[in-house]
Amino acid sequence: MIATLKFTTLLLAVVVCRATQDYGYKDVEEPTLGDSQYGSLWPLPQKVQMSTVAFKLSGVSFQIVDAKESSSGASCSLLQNSSFCCLSTDELSVDSPVAVLKAPKVWGALRGRGHGFYKSINRTEIQDFPRFTHRGLLLDSSRHFLPIKVILANLEAMAWNKFNVFHWHIVDDPSFPYMSRTFPQLSQQGAYHPYTHVYTPSDVKMIIEFARLRGIRVVSEFDTPGHTQSWGKGQKDLLTPCYSGASPSGSFGPVNPILNTTYDFMAMFFKEVSTVFPDAYIHLGGDEVDFSCWKSNPDIQKFMAQQGFGTDYSKLESFYIQRLLDIVTTTNKGYMIWQEVIDNGVKLKSNTVVHVWMGNKFEEELQKVTEAGFTTILSAPWYLDYISYGQDWQKYYKVEPLSFNGTDAQKKLVVGGEACLWGEYVDATNLTPRLWPRASAVGERLWSDKDVKDTNDAYSRLIQHRCRMVQ
Ligand SMILES: *[C@@H]1O[C@H](CO)[C@@H](O)[C@H](O)[C@H]1NC(C)=O
Ligand SMILES: *[C@@H]1O[C@H](CO)[C@@H](O)[C@H](O)[C@H]1NC(C)=O
Ligand SMILES: *[C@@H]1O[C@H](CO)[C@@H](O)[C@H](O)[C@H]1NC(C)=O
Ligand SMILES: *[C@@H]1O[C@H](CO)[C@@H](O)[C@H](O)[C@H]1NC(C)=O
């Protein structure tokens, strides 16, 4: 593919936007702000060679033209539509007012878009590819409803930072905004508002397509058996009745794992989900199951005895998850699960992706999970909903995902990570500025080479990258 350049690209952005660093007091170490030899590139490509030969660019007639040998063909509208201010990726060379871009797949060509209107570009050669294949971001649309435009804005920001997985934690205890065709009463009863605070089938479709055009997969999460209070409002008998002494207390616990109707419901529900979300994976949650309600319920106690589970309620959890996994397997989807599922000894299909989130000793967890042969993604050090004073992006930036003890084969099983922004204190008014550019630090960690770890250099580039995103 040959691109005739008029204006483009990520190189040499002459964006001047300097923050002053006078906070009055300093309890965090500030990096030094200098100029990066890489200008404003973010995330840093695997290989960049810039020369001092500069070309002037003008914005009038920039276009992307397919090379004769390009397999993308003239009809590749995915690239054409993003060509507006774009260029990228596996191999890019700017040499005279023509830039040559080579990529084995359209997603690669899409990935390294430049964002902005730059006036000059030096003769440059870039070879690029991501270090990790799974570069995700989790947003939570249950604790606070997230308007569609906020989700779209963040998909756009994700693309600028080369994230490629939107992990949509769509429902949870507080609300059920997903509008199900099969069980419309779930959002009717469980959303904050049945019409204004829901994602209709066409909303979901639009978000998935908007993401797809930016090379981003949408992995939906329907977390069970815990985190399901909102499900219970529209689906009778789905949740376990908790007892106070000999009688029901009126409150409900996790999904009721001892009823056949539970599994009938899950089969129909996940059949729908598997068609609505085209991605090959569904995230099934499985975290933080509170056993106290199960323990209080005499029917559950009886079932435990019948099954020979003793008083080990993690066996009951495993019983539920096992059946759920069998159900989801029939939809031909792979699944992702939070780490507790494996910690509790549930038998998993070998292609399960285990999501490590617990901050405590996550290196040991990575070691354990990969030793068991499972593909793994890491979120533990990247809970961006935990905020602190000053430049906490450095803390995310300095993480080395493969620092755990393990063989090369084990390390290969860590396919990437996800930044998580849980929604307790986040809604449309503050989500975007809270998330960016802090998530950009995770973006570079997951994309660039492991030796790219100079925080001073990163700081210089990140400041300019932030300005670019603001623009
Ligand atoms: C680009 O070229 C100019 C001279 O044309 C030079 O001063 C500058 O250092 C070059 N930039 C980089 C990043 O090499
Ligand atoms: C590209 O844009 C054109 C015109 O806006 C639109 O008709 C077409 O569907 C778009 N292609 C893709 C893949 O989005
Ligand atoms: C639940 O299903 C199992 C297996 O299909 C069956 O043996 C059992 O009788 C059913 N229980 C009830 C209460 O219907
Ligand atoms: C790796 O193993 C060494 C030696 O057993 C141990 O000292 C170290 O703490 C381990 N590192 C991690 C991150 O688990």
TrEMBL record:
Annotated signal peptide: 1-19
Keyword terms of this UniProt record: Cytoplasmic vesicle, Disulfide bond, Glycoprotein, Glycosidase, Hydrolase, Lipid metabolism, Lysosome, Signal
Catalytic activity annotation: a ganglioside GM2 (d18:1(4E)) + H2O = a ganglioside GM3 (d18:1(4E)) + N-acetyl-beta-D-galactosamine; N-acetyl-beta-D-6-sulfogalactosaminyl-(1->4)-alpha-L-iduronyl-(1->3)-N-acetyl-D-6-sulfogalactosamine + H2O = alpha-L-iduronyl-(1->3)-N-acetyl-D-6-sulfogalactosamine + N-acetyl-D-6-sulfogalactosamine; N-acetyl-beta-D-galactosaminyl-(1->4)-beta-D-3-sulfogalactosyl-(1->4)-beta-D-glucosyl-(1<->1')-ceramide + H2O = a beta-D-3-sulfogalactosyl-(1->4)-beta-D-glucosyl-(1<->1')-ceramide + N-acetyl-beta-D-galactosamine; Hydrolysis of terminal non-reducing N-acetyl-D-hexosamine residues in N-acetyl-beta-D-hexosaminides
Gene Ontology biological process terms in this record: carbohydrate metabolic process; ganglioside catabolic process; glycosaminoglycan metabolic process
Classification via InterPro entries: Beta_hexosaminidase_sua/sub (IPR025705), GH (IPR017853), Glyco_hydro_20_cat (IPR015883), Hex-like_dom2 (IPR029018)
Single GO term (MF): beta-N-acetylhexosaminidase activity
Annotated function: Hydrolyzes the non-reducing end N-acetyl-D-hexosamine and/or sulfated N-acetyl-D-hexosamine of glycoconjugates, such as the oligosaccharide moieties from proteins and neutral glycolipids, or from certain mucopolysaccharides. The isozyme B does not hydrolyze each of these substrates, however hydrolyzes efficiently neutral oligosaccharide. Only the isozyme A is responsible for the degradation of GM2 gangliosides in the presence of GM2A. During fertilization is responsible, at least in part, for the zona block to polyspermy.
Official protein name in the record: Beta-hexosaminidase subunit beta
Organism annotation: Oncorhynchus kisutch (Coho salmon)
